Amino acid sequence: MKYYVPLLIFFLSISVISQEVDTTFIRLKSKLDNALEDTAKIQSMFSLGVYQLDHDFDSAEEYFTEALSLIESNNTNDLLRKKAKIYVQMGVVNRRKANYPEAIAYHLKAMKYYEQLNDSSGIGDVYHNMAMVYRYQKEHRKAIEHFKKTVSLKQTVSDSVGLGAAYNMLGVSYRQNKQLDSALVCYQTAKKIFLAIKDENNVYRVNNNMGVLYQKLDQHDKALEIQYENLNRCKRLGKKLSICVTHYNISSVYKRKKEWSKSLKHADSSLQVALEENFRERAAVSYRRKSFVYAKMENYKEAHESYRIFKKYNDTIYNIENAKKIQALELNYEFQKEKQADSLQFAQEKREVELVGQAESSKKRLYFVLLLGAIISGVIITFLIRRNYQQRSKLAKATYENEKKILDQEIKSKEEDIKRLIADNSMRLAFKEELLDKIKNEVIGAEPKNIKKSLNSLTTQLRLQIDTENKLSGLQEKIDYVNQSFDTNLQESYPELTKGEREVCALLRLNLSIKEIMTIRNVSSDSVKSMRRRIRKKMDIPQDVELEKFIQELV
User: Of 253, 230, 278, which Cα lies nearest the Cα of 93?
Assistant: First the structure.
């Protein structure tokens, strides 16, 4: 009875685990079935593929392939990022199937998209998974180099999970490269990171790797405690690959303890899972372990058979052809990258040349516009200067003509004044000559009785002459005063009158006699009388109206 209870508990635990696993798968599958849009379907297929990575590689690959087919018709940045993630997972599938060249090819495709999207975290994921491939290929130095790149990128983007995973795997590569102290530091760093963010799953992964390290350090009890704890957890979660690896690690601990039967048992368990899940790389190392243990147990026939099978698996996994393929993929990727960089550089240089050409063209256009503007400005300025010159010339000419006219009028006025003065002097001279002749004729040599009479007559004539001169002395002022507006009005009313006739009218307006007018103008009395007749006729003055009175009544 006591044996049935543990068996019952075992089967119940298996049932609970199966239900837990099935529930997760059913939930993800239901989500896919209920998805209506392509983006939701792609996400559900991706989640199912990631889940199946620990359970069924072929199923995982099918989900990833189907998701890629949906993405092909949608090339938005979000879907490109999803496409890159799927390529990374496809690389993981092929790595776990030991198809290393195919794995590298998928990772390089993902790298191309992440670089296009400038996604540092995604690039770090690609370096991490490429390092994993190199680690399985036993190119540990190359793996360490890529893990270090991952650490740097994950630190830049503050990705704690990615950073912890990179340190964990970097520790594995250091351990496989026999750098045990460096491995321990990496494990401790990774565990510290995962504990800080309370990531229990990744803490278990680090513990598992530390168990392997304890094995290398011959701390077997510690190593077994961690490995058995991890094995139970992997079985509970149904993680086939982890179960396979953990059995192998336990086998390694017993191998170092030289407990050959226990080592063989766990090597067989690891091999069974590897064959069921087609883990070729894990199958190869399990056969190698069995060969080694059989040899130690002196069962050379089984040792040889196991080694022969190991060699068969190993030759298909680790061969020169695969290495060449991987190297060719890397070189091709680098070549394409350099080619793309050269194309970008050429395009940039071409663009720079075009920009320089455009700048030169713009400069030429600017210079032409400036030159054209200068020419137009010059024409306008020349036109304005010429027009200003012409206006100033016209103004100067008008001013000159006006001043000339005024000067001519002043000259004529002066000439008239001179004529008057000459006439006045002539009249005075004539009077004096006439007076002298009378004195000679009538006084000198005359009889005494007639001298007195002659002197009285001469005295009378002299007094009249003095009165006339006094009268004429203020005559010019009177003429100027009277003629202020009279001449203008007379010219407007009677344009037929000559200047001389208008001057006679002005003298008549002062009520001067014919003799006085004759004296002033230095003409004969007949000339004055003739001018009076012409004035009367031009002004159309009736015969019964006196000329002087008519003129004086004019305004």
Answer: 278
pLDDT over threshold 70, residue 374? yes
Question: Residue 75: which H helix or E strand, with range?
Answer: none
Please provide residue 99's backbone torsions phi and psi, each rounded to the nearest 5 degrees: -95, 75
CB atoms within 10 A of CB 377: 10
If we measure between CA atoms, which residue out of 464, 549, 472 comes closest to residue 516?
472
Sequence-distant contacts of 57-66: CB under 8 A, at least 24 apart = 57/93, 57/96, 57/97, 57/277, 57/278, 58/278, 60/89, 60/93, 61/90, 61/93, 64/89, 64/90, 64/93, 65/90
Contact 144, 174 (CB under 8 A): yes
- Residue 4 predicted with pLDDT over 50: no
The single residue listed with the structure tokens 């508990």 is 9
Look at the pTM and tell me if it is higher than 0.85: no
Count of alpha carbons within 13 angstroms of residue 419, beta-carbon side: 12
CA 32 to chain centre: 46
**Residues making up the chain, counted from first to last:** 555
Q: Give the position of tokens 């091709």.
A: 332
Distances from the Cα of 216 to the Cα of 132, 219, 372, 519, angstroms: 21, 8, 88, 162
CA distance 529 to 536: 11
* pLDDT(280) > 60: yes
Cβ neighbourhood burial of 148 (10 Å; 0-12, 13-18, 19+): middle
The reported pLDDT for the residue numbered 10 is 42
155-209 per-position pLDDT tens digit = 999 999 999 999 999 999 998 898 989 998 998 999 999 999 998 888 888 888 8
- The C-alpha angle with vertex 352 and arms to 350 and 356, in degrees rounded to 5, equals 115
d(CA 123, CA 121): 5
- pLDDT tens digit sequence for 197-220: 998 888 888 888 888 888 888 888
CA dist., res. 186 & res. 81, Å (int): 30
The amino acid present at 124, given as its one-letter code, is G
